[in-house]
Amino acid sequence: xxxxxxxxxxxxxxxxxxxxxxxxxxxxxxxxxxxxxxxxxxxxxxxxxxxxxxxxxxxxxxxxxxxxxxxxxxxxxxxxxxxxxxxxxxxxxxxxxxxxxxxxxxxxxxxxxxxxxxxxxxxxxxxxxxxxxxxxxxxxxxxxxxxxxxxxxxxxxxxxxxxxxxxxxxxxxxxxxxxxxxxxxxxxxxxxxxxxxxxxxxxxxxxxxxxxxxxxxxxxxxxxxxxxxxxxxxxxxx
Amino acid sequence: xxxxxxxxxxxxxxxxxxxxxxxxxxxxxxxxxxxxxxxxxxxxxxxxxxxxxxxxxxxxxxxxxxxxxxxxxxxxxxxxxxxxxxxxxxxxxxxxxxxxxxxxxxxxxxxxxxxxxxxxxxxxxxxxxxxxxxxxxxxxxxxxxxxxxxxxxxxxxxxxxxxxxxxxxxxxxxxxxxxxxxxxxxxxxxxxxxxxxxxxxxxxxxxxxxxxxxxxxxxxxxxxxxxxxxxxxxxxxxxxxxxx
Lengths: 238, 244
Fold this sequence. Notes:
The complex is a heterodimer of chains A (238) and B (244).
Chain A: H1 2-7, H2 10-59, H3 62-76, H4 80-90, H5 100-125, H6 129-137, H7 142-172, H8 184-195, H9 198-227
Chain B: E1 2-11, E2 14-24, E3 29-33, H1 40-47, E4 55-60, E5 63-66, H2 73-82, E6 83-86, H3 98-108, H4 114-127, H5 143-156, E7 161-165, H6 173-188, E8 192-196, H7 200-206, E9 209-214, E10 217-222, H8 224-229, H9 234-243
């Protein structure tokens, strides 16, 4: 029906082509100036938080373990959108006003940190105990063993689920539109509000999200290939 | 050179090592035999601090650790730097090539320059007959080759004593001899070695001293001719009759 109405009406077709060409650039700009930086920055900060949270949960004393567990529990147990609203709309009530983009950075980083910490924790715990023992037996300290022996192996285990988180994050950044970050989806809303072509404009936005995710899954494949070089492959079966 | 006094280790309520005394002179090869669960592996692991004894004294090459008091992490690391460990399942680092496995400790722990470390590593690989495989990953090697690399990795740290924890138990039978040969060469060069093994023929050939372990205590020890052919204790006789 929708497509039919487009192709049998040259005027409407022309109008849509005009909208497409005039909205594509602002949408792409939104993706490049906000969606991607927001994703990359928060994922990086989130990984650092996740790493130390995982270490605290595995090696920490009761106090550190408790803090880490509480953090993970609160973040995982509450909706991301609610967290963003608390930071952006809630904190000003107690005199802490943070502008939209930094609010998004804080909210998403804390969120990624909690989820990724579980991935990193599981990856570290998946490395056999004898690898630790071998590292200790040549005189390594615990931090040397983690850095040189355990993490390189754990990384390989963690890459697929972390890639999942990363791709999830790309799409989750659209929630930042609700705290006034002019990322891609907010621009799509603004454009659609002026021309009422909601289906068309949101589809263009969806397409750009898909292309970005597609590119990152190719990058993921390349990273995995590099990290798998030391794994035995027999007749294509891993 | 190695002096062990009153060594005791428990897991939870289970006493696995009970009050062990043993002296090991420099250059000697000590083979520990005994039924599974007798505590021989635990004993070996105590010698390099992979298990922390609950009590007793370990003295290796002038370093004395008294486990009746609190020992520091630094003391444990000093102990490990005097001992080399070879594990039953090789425990090579799978993400590193053969040569990288060997020089890892030299670079990270001893902080040697890479060129110097590689020189040492290549010399050791030549010794265990695997220089041609230096750029392979462990997954590309046979079990026997992996274990020879593991021996070279331990030797690279220049230990005063080499500890072997059932080094041939995980190997296919046809690969056992290549590992035993490397160990034999090592013994002939005068390396001090403590070996937990079930290879009785090897023990008889190479050991200066055989120690028979059962239920966490040393039942009997002495030269292989005595332990294997003229054991005094009933339990030793019984164990030997079961495996022959």
